[in-house]
Amino acid sequence: MAYTSESAIDFYNLLAIDYAIQTGGTPPVKLLAAATPAEIAGQPTLYIVAHGLQGSAGHYNADEIAGLISGAVSKHKGVVALSRVVFLTCWAGTSPPGGESVVDAVAKALSSYKGISVRGPKGASILHRLALGGDAVVVDSTRQGIKRAAGATGSGPATTTTAGITKMTNAFAIQAEKRKKYGPSTEEEKAIMDALAQPDIVRRAEAATKATAPFVAKFVRSLDRYQLVIKRGDDWSDRVS
């Protein structure tokens, strides 16, 4: 497993690192640019942890990170064991206007090595080993969410005047509200920030996961209530080289 930038020490990336380790990832956890060809190509699954936008992961655009991964694989001296690349980065599976998604770019760059699967979320991803039971949730953070009144039915576009609609909001407003009420206390945050000085990133990730479990659970329940969670089957992009 590798992560892409120094920003991987923040809460989100610590949660993703813990999630990756608990769902099959193995150390080392390090900067992607510092990973050896053997560390990238010599293991079955490579998890990429970073913040992401459409067409970028960490501080690499789609072509740059595709070149890093495919370049390391081509330089590997032994048997290429890599069979799966998983991007735990928001929007890795969505293309920017006129561009290519990170998932598509990496799958294309690895086309000489048949059968390597590449996947990434199509929106803002939430990964939490404790609050979500090892599950991953992908959020549509680009639109307004709709909370329906009890007993209301129907789906699709709606306005504030549509019958059965009680409130409209978006993922960022919900996050701010739940973060204020259920987020880690100042003491918990301080303990985690102090832990960042330790060399063991695995222990830091475990601490972040424990501290944020109540917040993430409440946050995801609210996102689901407002119909902001992308339904299963449409939430991840999967490609094979």
Automatic annotation (TrEMBL):
Origin: domain of life: Bacteria
Identification of the protein by name: Peptidase C80 domain-containing protein
